[in-house]
Amino acid sequence: MISTIITANAVPDLTRPSRPAAAGPRPGAPESAATRTASRPIADPREAARAVRKEMASRRMQGVAERMRALSLMIKADPRSALKLAAELARELKAAVTAYQEAGGRNVSSGDMAVIRRQIADARQAQTAADQPAVPVADAVVPGTADADVRRAQQAYAQAASAEFQARSIDRLSTMEAVAGSDYGFFNQVKVLVTGLRKARDDIRYESRSALRPPDDEDWKAADKAQAELERQIDIGASGISVRA
């Protein structure tokens, strides 16, 4: 959970406090939700390039999904050609997965998504608490009016700093959630396609028993190799949510 405790630094003339101004954006820091809504500034060129590469990999994966229907229609009529197509689609899907991973994509699970959403909810709760009025400092607690004013100033400064920290944390976590959500969607579709290819192979094996031109051993070796390399590529990729955002 994101800590809401901020140690107040000493500041000059605390007897006349003023709410600290919001710090300007740090280089490479994610923009706020309001800024994104109003007018999105030019993104980090490296992040923009990664996003483009991910989009290209996603389109390549969608191309495999579109050809899966043709594969299912081919199995009964020509199982040998269907097996060769299944191997081709496995190689194409592996290439799409590899490209996506090289662009920074990660195999995010539903559990990972639940964790970051919980962190965002906790940060929002902490922000709400930080925005609540501070408990007044009684003059009796700190003898002398001047000391009481100093304590109130410190309290107000710490409260304002905490609220600003939580706002930045929420923005950063929301950016991470958006990236993780895209990765989750990509790999979820990939897993559906892998399952589809496995089923197609089982159907091809069944139809081959009565086919006039069934796949031979070399066809199966090539198809097995393509399928194994696809699944291995998924397994060796990075998983979890990146903290780079």
Account of the protein in words:
The chain has 6 helices and no strands. The protein has 245 residues and is an all-alpha fold. The chain has one domain (43-236). The longest helix has 64 residues, at 145-208.
List keywords for this structure.
245 residues; mainly alpha; 6 helices; 69% helix; 0% strand; disordered N terminus
Please render the helix and strand layout as text.
Blueprint: H1 33-38, H2 45-77, H3 79-102, H4 110-131, H5 145-208, H6 217-236
Helix pairs in contact: 2-3, 2-5, 3-5, 3-6, 4-5
**Total domains:** 1
| Main sheet characteristics | none
Specify the overall morphology. Answer: elongated
**Total beta strands:** 0
Total DSSP helices: 6
What class, by secondary structure content? mainly alpha
* Strand content bin: under 5%
**Overall pLDDT level:** 77
Proportion of residues in helical segments: 55-70%
- Uncertain spans, ≥5 residues at pLDDT below 50? 1-42
- How much is the radius of gyration in Å? 28 Å
Order of helices and strands: HHHHHH
What is the end-to-end distance? 18 Å
